């Protein structure tokens, strides 16, 4: 197989990965090796190899066990001491993992890792739990594998939106 077709195969794989496999999200952290291939001097073209790369990617993904990753954020929450129980309970209900807390003269700072999808509307909830006295900062921390119920929900929503198109 001529080397000029390797880039076409790569392009087909990259485009298929960008379209996603699970729920339409981009596929990341994978490696591909081309072991063998053939071509025909008349019938072969870059487009044919691009399509072949895309089809091979989809076939390979079907035989693997891909996972869905979700973004995890680091929350730093400052609250009054008396609100600590409510806030920690709320973080647990949001699948959060409390990393620690620091006490500072009547105030408490809690740090926790929480899935981003669980804190998109956190500000009004924190205000109501703390009587308007709490505040927080949020920054991206890392990605983690999404739990199976979340994966099933996301895939079902994706399939529903695709059938509506």
Name the features.
alpha+beta; Ribosomal Protein S5, domain 2; Alpha-Beta Plaits
Question: Topology of this structure?
Answer:
Blueprint: H1 4-19, H2 46-63, E1 69-80, H3 84-93, E2 97-104, E3 107-115, H4 122-130, E4 135-145, H5 148-164
Antiparallel strand pairs: 1-3, 1-4, 2-3
Helix pairs in contact: 1-2
What report would you give on this structure?
The protein starts with a helix and ends with a helix. It has helices at 4-19, 46-63, 84-93, 122-130, 148-164, and strands at residues 69-80, 97-104, 107-115, 135-145. The protein contains 5 helices and 4 strands. Helix 1 (4-19) packs across helix 2 (46-63). The chain is an alpha+beta fold and 165 residues long. Strands 2-3-1-4 form a 4-stranded antiparallel beta sheet, covered by helices on one side. It has 2 domains: 4-63, Ribosomal Protein S5, domain 2; 69-145, Alpha-Beta Plaits.
The run of helices and strands is HHEHEEHEH
- Helical content stands at 40-55%
Please outline the major beta sheet. 4 strands, antiparallel
CATH A-level architecture of the largest domain: 2-Layer Sandwich
Note the overall shape.
elongated
Can you list the strand order of the major beta sheet? 2-3-1-4
Strand-residue proportion: 15-25%
State the gist of this model.
42% of the residues lie in helices and 24% in strands. It is of the alpha+beta class. It folds into two domains: 4-63, Ribosomal Protein S5, domain 2 (2-Layer Sandwich), CATH 3.30.230.10; 69-145, Alpha-Beta Plaits (2-Layer Sandwich).
């Amino acid at each position: 197989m001529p080397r000029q077709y390797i880039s076409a195969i790569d392009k087909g794989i990259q485009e298929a990965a960008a379209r996603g496999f699970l729920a339409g999200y981009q596929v990341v952290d994978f490696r591909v090796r081309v072991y063998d291939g053939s071509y025909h001097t008349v019938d072969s073209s870059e487009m044919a190899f691009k399509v072949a790369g895309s089809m091979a990617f989809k076939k390979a993904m079907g035989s693997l066990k891909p996972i869905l990753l979700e973004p995890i954020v680091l929350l730093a929450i400052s609250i009054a001491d008396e609100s600590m129980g409510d806030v920690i309970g709320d973080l647990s209900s949001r699948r959060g993992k409390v990393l620690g807390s620091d006490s500072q003269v009547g105030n408490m700072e809690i740090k926790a890792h929480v899935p981003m999808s669980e804190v998109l509307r956190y500000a009004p909830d924190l205000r109501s739990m703390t009587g308007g006295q709490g505040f927080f900062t949020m920054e991206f921390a890392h990605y983690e594998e999404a739990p199976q119920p979340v994966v099933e929900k996301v895939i079902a929503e994706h399939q529903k939106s695709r059938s509506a198109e």
